[in-house]
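User: Here's a chain of 192 residues. Predict its fold as tokens.
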Amino acid sequence: MVFDDLPAVFTYSDARRSGLSERKLYALRDRGDIEPIGRGLFRRVDAELEADVDLLEIAARAPEATLCLTTALARHGLTDLIPAEIDVALPRDRRRPSTQAPVAWHKFDPDTFVIGRDELQLTSSLFIGIYGPERCIIDAFRLRRWEGPELGITALRRWLAGPGAQPSGLLRMARSFPRVEQVLRATLEVLL
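Assistant: Prediction complete.
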């Protein structure tokens, strides 16, 4: 009965708080009813989860985690690159959690962290943030010293070719990132 009350993804502490003993928890694991997806983090095997196990771990460990840069651009279809690590942003004042998932943590300014941020639903109660296409393009230009200039230019070119692209909206969002606005405006002039 206690097992049925657990969410699709839960921590060791969640299981203990719901009344499941350590012995029963590990018996469920050994029987194959649950599987570990990180240290002290489990998922119910009977739960239909389409989400990537790594994303589940990241979202459970860091509720503010937001997919960014190449990872988010790939999800939006704006790059063909497949990153070796999952690019995840956190506000600069937050601690990076320890994960088994391969994560490249990025620290973003808390004042602009929520700009362009949406959420992906992973389970009925677990979400992970993801930056929208416009914010991803701005970040690719903003961090071009580390990510390379091609990432932003390719993403911008693909975004402009897609349906519903509004360069004026992109530039409006870029105003919150003053160092990027001029470079983005100049690139848009060349591409348009």
